[in-house]
Amino acid sequence: MATLEIHDLHVSVEAENGPREILKGVDLTIKQGETHAVMGPNGSGKSTLAYSLAGHPKYTITGGTVTLDGEDVLEMEVDERARAGVFLAMQYPVEVPGVSVSNFLRTSATAIRGEAPKLRTWVKEVKEAMERLQMDPSFAERNVNEGFSGGEKKRHEILQLELLKPKIAILDETDSGLDVDALRIVSEGVNRVRETGEVGTLLITHYTRILRYIKPDFVHVFANGRIAESGGAELADQLEAEGYDKYVKGGVSA
Amino acid sequence: MAEAQNIPAGATAGGAVAVAAESTVATRMSAPPSYDVQDFPVPHGREEEWRFTPLERLKGLHDGTAKADGAIKAQVDAPEGVTVESVTRDDERVGKAGKPVDRIAAQAYSSFEKATVISVPKETVLTEPVRVLLHGEGGTTFGHTVFDIGAFAEAVIVVDHTGDGVRAANVDFLVGDGAKVTFVSVQDWDDTAVHCSQHNAKLGRDATFKSVVVTFGGDVVRLHPRVEYTGPGGDAELLGLYFTDAGQHQEHRLLVDHNVPNCKSNVVYKGALQGDNAHAVWIGDVLIEAAAEGTDTYEMNRNLVLTDGARVDSVPNLEIETGEIVGAGHASATGRFDDEQLFYLMARGIPATEARRLVVRGFFAELVQQIGVKDIEERLIAKIEEELEASV
């Protein structure tokens, strides 16, 4: 069973006046089949956690370890992490002009699976996955994220999640900017992947709204660069009622 | 990639984009067009039309010191019905399509010994391309070629430049009424070659002219594709593709002169740059003269900067003397393949080199598909792959 273990992770970014520490010792273990929600106020470092796990060059790991089934994730290049089974659904996916969605998906699937998917079954696989996410077939011929609406970008991210079948899926504010219909469609997509029992999900969100559709096994409150409190789904209800005030005040605020 | 972020002309993105302020095509020239090299002052490098060009690398083409001491091997494959003649400069077809607009073009015109005239008789529809293979064997050569395409004839012309040398040669197209011409010029020179050429196309009524300029090689390549119309209904499509590597200077200076009513033009040039001191220059001038009512024109230049150290100067320029037109527009965008795009593709398991390839292929694919000459399209794709293999 795949397990992602994050231990005492410290991460900095270059700021104007030198490096600034954003993650200050994160401990978190995600097992295949589990869903962890990481919730926290803006600026708490949630997205930094997501991008650091995926290997974004902007972030410097200054301490701690991340392993996937014992393998050192931090030693891997970005593409190696993806091939090892780590997937990041991005909050702001970038445009890649000149590269069609269909070409991109196939290139990616080929890289992740280690061989080119058979054309006929692949076309069917993509078509069905797109239908489930209520994406128009013409989507496949558009350039990656170019001119996509916010909702289209997120659906496209979840489409990749469904096709690439990672061991660990990190969803960085996938819910932000979505209307209720789009949120439901995207959440159903995530749930289909979860129901296979083969993915460990790290759901990063600011709001509790998405948790009505995607039920987490664990909820972690993220504040000031580390996990301030962990609990079950009931912790989300408490956050819904009380907000993040008690975590950002009380002397831990940055 | 930033290319499609539609960075407006004038913005800087990895390379640099310069925009002409208030300049007109006429005032940009240091001298009026002329066949005689003596009518042009020797450029010093600060003139508008020379300011991007490294004069010191032109091997004397610009200042009269270049002598015709070289050799170029020419092979012409002409399908049946096509005639190939070697003529003197007093042949009435020579120079008829347009006058030289700068000193090097005039130098070429003043220096060639014999011109080649390749004719396609009227109403002749060629099923095979006319192929001209020019292989530089070192030294300086001057040349002049005229393609005389009769009324309602249809022809595809492919001119290939390979090898090494210093070459100044102009190419004229006399495109008859209703004729259809596709002209492909491939600059696949060795990295030491210098090539300057003015392409003059004079279009008859309802004539269609498609020019595809492909520049990969050379130390300095400086081309002037130019179009003018002699009757309504003319349609010009000027496509260009360049891949500028470290140390190369590739300059394309286009002019479409809408001087008669109801003609169309579409200019699309795309370039990728990689390596230190790779320098691409694109000047796109479109004139819509007062008489040219009903004109429909668009010009676009896109550049993709793949590495640090490359520079792009892109200057679109549209001058309109009548408002009675169908459409006129221009766009220039220079962007770079940036870390965020690379991260996104890599985060989907795609290795860095493959990611870069995917983006460049995509960038050029649409343009390549518009060429419409199958073997040229395939060759270009292969050549782009080759350039990518060599990428840093």
UniProtKB/TrEMBL annotation, chain A:
<comment type="similarity">
    <text>Belongs to the ABC transporter superfamily. Ycf16 family.</text>
</comment>
<dbReference type="GO" id="GO:0005524">
    <property type="term" value="F:ATP binding"/>
</dbReference>
<keyword id="KW-0547">Nucleotide-binding</keyword>
<dbReference type="InterPro" id="IPR027417">
    <property type="entry name" value="P-loop_NTPase"/>
</dbReference>
<dbReference type="InterPro" id="IPR010230">
    <property type="entry name" value="FeS-cluster_ATPase_SufC"/>
</dbReference>
<dbReference type="Pfam" id="PF00005">
    <property type="entry name" value="ABC_tran"/>
</dbReference>
<protein>
    <submittedName>
        <fullName>Fe-S cluster assembly ATP-binding protein</fullName>
    </submittedName>
</protein>
<dbReference type="InterPro" id="IPR003439">
    <property type="entry name" value="ABC_transporter-like_ATP-bd"/>
</dbReference>
<dbReference type="InterPro" id="IPR003593">
    <property type="entry name" value="AAA+_ATPase"/>
</dbReference>
<keyword id="KW-0067">ATP-binding</keyword>
<dbReference type="GO" id="GO:0016887">
    <property type="term" value="F:ATP hydrolysis activity"/>
</dbReference>
<feature type="domain" description="ABC transporter">
    <location>
        <begin position="4"/>
        <end position="249"/>
    </location>
</feature>
TrEMBL record, chain B:
<dbReference type="InterPro" id="IPR000825">
    <property type="entry name" value="SUF_FeS_clus_asmbl_SufBD_core"/>
</dbReference>
<dbReference type="InterPro" id="IPR055346">
    <property type="entry name" value="Fe-S_cluster_assembly_SufBD"/>
</dbReference>
<comment type="similarity">
    <text>Belongs to the iron-sulfur cluster assembly SufBD family.</text>
</comment>
<dbReference type="GO" id="GO:0016226">
    <property type="term" value="P:iron-sulfur cluster assembly"/>
</dbReference>
<dbReference type="InterPro" id="IPR011542">
    <property type="entry name" value="SUF_FeS_clus_asmbl_SufD"/>
</dbReference>
<dbReference type="Pfam" id="PF01458">
    <property type="entry name" value="SUFBD_core"/>
</dbReference>
<protein>
    <submittedName>
        <fullName>Fe-S cluster assembly protein SufD</fullName>
    </submittedName>
</protein>
<dbReference type="InterPro" id="IPR037284">
    <property type="entry name" value="SUF_FeS_clus_asmbl_SufBD_sf"/>
</dbReference>
<feature type="domain" description="SUF system FeS cluster assembly SufBD core">
    <location>
        <begin position="135"/>
        <end position="363"/>
    </location>
</feature>
